[in-house]
TrEMBL record:
It comes from the Bacteria. Keywords: Membrane, Transmembrane, Transmembrane helix. It comes from Rhodopila globiformis. The lineage of its organism: Bacteria, Pseudomonadati, Pseudomonadota, Alphaproteobacteria, Acetobacterales. The chain crosses the membrane at residues 35-55, 61-85, 106-126, 132-151, 163-184. This is Yip1 domain-containing protein.
Length: 188
């Protein structure tokens, strides 16, 4: 008897489905510690590469400080969302949510690229570059917040209000983690 193994869910297919607002894309992501760590690897690689580049130009203190801040910012959504999932008795769904969350962060650069095309044409037609930049930031912020809400609502099975709460707290804490050290350094 020749039994075929069930096809493995495709991360790319999951990302594309979620990007279009299809909750069935969440099933394409693993719910194991290994799947979660695999989703973190590329997010951690970029700050590490940046630190290596900064090391030669700005020195070890700046490079290591920037690396520490970036790593904390990358890990903040996972840590805080786990605590909220635990509080709301959704910790059994958290690994799949966190894995999908990490992989779906790669949607944002694609959205930026797609949004930049019409904005570039608008700038060429006379739109102020500052206005175009603000519009791009607004598009990315709006889509990013919706994406995080969509994942929280569907992967964790949260109510709309709890999903909004998670999105606000996670993004606020991540922003403070990223900007806090810079603000403190300027005050000193």
């Amino acid at each position: 008897m020749n039994q075929r193994a069930a096809p493995r869910p495709s991360i790319l297919a999951g990302i594309l489905r979620i990007a279009r607002g299809r909750a069935d894309g969440i099933a394409c992501f693993g719910a194991s510690p290994q799947a979660f760590l695999s989703s973190l690897a590329p997010l951690l690689a970029f700050p590490l590469a940046g630190a290596l580049l900064t090391l030669s130009s700005d020195g070890p203190i700046v490079a290591l400080t920037s690396l520490a801040v970036a790593l904390c910012a990358v890990l903040m959504p996972a840590v805080l969302s786990f605590e909220l999932a635990r509080l709301w008795k959704r910790q059994n769904n958290w690994l799949r949510f966190a894995t999908a969350f990490n992989w779906c962060e790669w949607i944002l650069p694609v959205v930026a690229g797609v949004a930049m095309l019409p904005l570039s044409l608008a700038v060429a037609a006379g739109m102020d570059e500052a206005t175009a930049s603000l519009m791009l930031a607004g598009i990315l912020a709006g889509y990013g917040l919706w994406l995080h809400w969509f994942l929280a609502r569907n992967a964790l099975g949260l109510s709309a209000l709890r999903a909004v709460t998670l999105v606000i707290l996670v993004n606020l804490a991540t922003g403070v983690t990223l900007m806090g050290p810079h603000v403190v350094a300027r005050l000193l």
